[in-house]
Amino acid sequence: MSDSSRSLIPSFLYSSDHRLFQLHEPATNMTQHKAQPLRSLKTSSVSSNGQSFAIPAPNENVELYSPAYFTACTVGGMLSCGFTHTAVTPLDVLKCNMQIDPSKYKNITSAFKTTIKEQGLKGFTRGWSPTLIGYSAQGAFKYGLYEYAKKYYSDIVGPENAAKYKTLIYLAGSASAEIVADVALCPMEAVKVRVQTQPGFARGLSDGLPKIIRSEGVRGLFKGLVPLWGRQIPYTMMKFATFENTVELIYKKVIPTPKEECSEPVQLGVSFAGGYIAGIFCAVISHPADNLVSFLNNSKGATVSDAVKRLGLLGMFTRGLPLRIFMIGTLTGAQWVIYDAVKVLAGLPTTGGASPATTALAPAVSA
Fold first, then answer.
1. DSSP-assigned letter for residue 39
2. What letter does residue 48 receive in the DSSP assignment?
3. Cα 98 from Cα 49, distance rounded (Å)
């Protein structure tokens, strides 16, 4: 794409600084003012007064909001979630066991020693295969559909409202994406929890999945879907909205250099910092539902009231929380780095960094 190309998109998505936006004066003499071509999209956001957001997109290999763009986002999400969740499988094993049997696995140290004694080092890798498959599928839908929904909702409300209510756009887009993503994750999550918390249940995915289907039917794979939505939807809404706003604040308040002038390593470093901060908030808000998911998937025929009685109301909010904060913070930061690295490799800008409140509207230029 040439440097003169433009993309009509909501200003808060990928612009980094208001200096990217310049007001073009009406051309009175074509020899003095040469109109710059705009690549319009079918769903381009144009305000009622004829103005539009025009963002330069130099050196792109992938056209913004093209099928290839959403494919890149989908692949980035698949890699970021699949690899990171699999990498923290040992921590996940400890966390799940502390949630399921708090009397046996009293704390992190106790859970670690008990797992080593009873299962050896191999016990820390239990459930890695359903984790890899399940969270790869979830990440593909989560990130790919988020980018699509964010653009779709922005076009519906128009650029002015999209900038004004940007956080609501982030929340609505992430919630919509997560509803679908959890349907893809749920069966693998059911297998993962059983394998990790019931050592004699199955070796892994190959025998664990058929065993659940034989004993409980296909419905057994989805009995944790509602609690999973209860955990993941607030988690993802917090994850994306906090990340987008945190990155914007970092570029606005912490880093004196405009985003487009920062090196790629610096931008990816900002992605990690924003992701880690977002992960802390995610862990806290979604932790009670995470305890529920682990309990229900581990106990056949158990109900929510059974979980509350067993863990206690305070335990629902605190059991395994410090470990989960560390795990989710690191995991979320790494996810955004991987995701944005894929976007950078595709020639796309990293996520976040816009400041719509200070962004100037550029009038559309006619040819």
1. B
2. T
3. 59
Residue 112 in contact with residue 94, Cβ under 8 Å?
yes
3-state DSSP call for residue 54? strand
Contact 212, 297 (CB under 8 A): no
Which letter does DSSP use for residue 1 in this model? Answer: -
As given in the structure block, the two tokens for residue 137 are: 């599928």
Q: Give the residue from 187, 188, 151 showing the smallest Cα distance to 172.
A: 151
The Cα 72–Cα 343 span in angstroms is: 7
* CA–CA distance, 324 with 111 (Å, rounded to integer): 14
pLDDT of 50: 40
Distance between terminal CA atoms of the chain? 19
Among 171-185, 255-269, 322-336, name the most confident range: 171-185
- pLDDT at residue 22 is higher than 50: no
> What's the pLDDT band for 354 if we cut at 50, 70, 90?
low
**DSSP of 69-123:** HHHHHHHHHHHHHHHHHHHTHHHHHHHHHHHH-TTTS-SHHHHHHHHHHHH-GGG
Q: Beta-carbon neighbour count of residue 193 at 10 Å?
A: 25
pLDDT of residue 185: 97
* Spatial separation of the C-alpha atoms in residues 79 and 86, rounded to whole Å: 11
d(CA 142, CA 184): 10
pTM over 0.70: yes
Angle (CA) 340-252-178 rounded to 5° is 40
Instruction: Show the DSSP H helices in the chain as ranges.
Output: 11-14, 67-87, 89-100, 108-119, 128-157, 159-164, 166-197, 205-216, 225-249, 264-298, 304-311, 313-318, 321-345
| C-alpha to C-alpha distance for 242 and 322, rounded to whole angstroms | 20
- Nearest Cα to 45, choosing from 23, 65, 75, 28? 65
